C-alpha cells in the first residue's frame, strides 16, 4: 500500500478531507450506549462493533478514522463511576481506530471535546481542564494518532484551553478545532459563542493560536452551518475550514437542534425524538456542493450520521467510495423507473465533476 498522505499535505494540495462522525448517537440508536450521560463505554463492552462502524464509515468514503474517545474524558468517567477505566477506554479506542486506519490506508485522529467541567468561577478551572485534555492528548500521541480533533466547544475559552493543551502535549501533531455554535446572536445578528465571542473573531483567534483547521461541528444542521462558514471564509482567515453539521433540518427559527420542536406535539425533540427532522440524502448532497463552492475543505457529518450520508457527501464532491457500489439506481425501480429527476440531477452533477477532474 502506498504511504498515507497526511492531513495537511492533502488540504494544502487543495484536496478535500471527508470525516465521518456521529458515533455517540449511532450507538445510542442501536442500544449500545446510554442517552443522558453519553459516555462511549461501548468501546470496552463491544469493541468489535466499534471496529465495524469504523470500517463501515471508511467504506462509505471517510478519509479519517476518528477514535471514539468523545466524552471519554475524566469528568464523564467520574459521572458514571468508572474513572478506573479511563485509560483503558481511551487506549482501546485509539488502538481500534489505528488498526482500522492502517488496514484501510486512512488517517487516524485522536479526539478531545467539550468537557462539561468548564467553570470560570473556579480559580483552578484552567488547570483542571488542561489536566483532562493533557491525558487524552498524550494517550492519542502514544497510540499513534495522525492528528488531533478538538471539537464541540460551545465556550470559546474552553476551545482555547484545548488548543493550548494540544500545542503543549501534542508533539506537533496537526489539529482541527471546531466550535459547536449555539444560538446567541449579537445586536448585529452575528452569532456568538456562549461566552460572547463573535464567530468570525473566534475563528481568527483560533487561527492566530495555531489551529490548522477551524470551523463548526455539531448542534447545527447543514442549512444553519454553511452560511456562517461562508461569512468566516469572507472574513479573510487563511486556515483550512471545517464544516461538520448534524444531519437534522435546523432552520432560521431553530438554528440549533436543541431548539427544534415536533410539528405534531410542539414538544422539544432533542435529543431523543430528533428523527422527525432528519435530513434527506439530497440535503446532504446539496451541503457538499455548497461547501465545494465556498471552499470548505474539511467536511463531514456529526451526531445522527450513518454511512449513507457519508457516501452521499463523498458523491457530492465527485468521489465514488466502495459503498457507491450500492448507491441507488432508481431507473430499475418498479414504480419510479426513469422518471426520477433527483437521481438524474445527482448523476449529472457527478459526471460533470468527473469530467472536470479528467
Ligand atoms: Zn455532534
Automatic annotation (TrEMBL):
The keyword Metal-binding applies. Keywords: Metal-binding, Methyltransferase, Transferase, Zinc. Binds 1 zinc ion per subunit. The keyword Methyltransferase applies. Residues 6-317 form the Hcy-binding domain. One of its GO terms (biological process) is methylation. This is Betaine--homocysteine S-methyltransferase 1. It comes from Holothuria leucospilota (Black long sea cucumber).
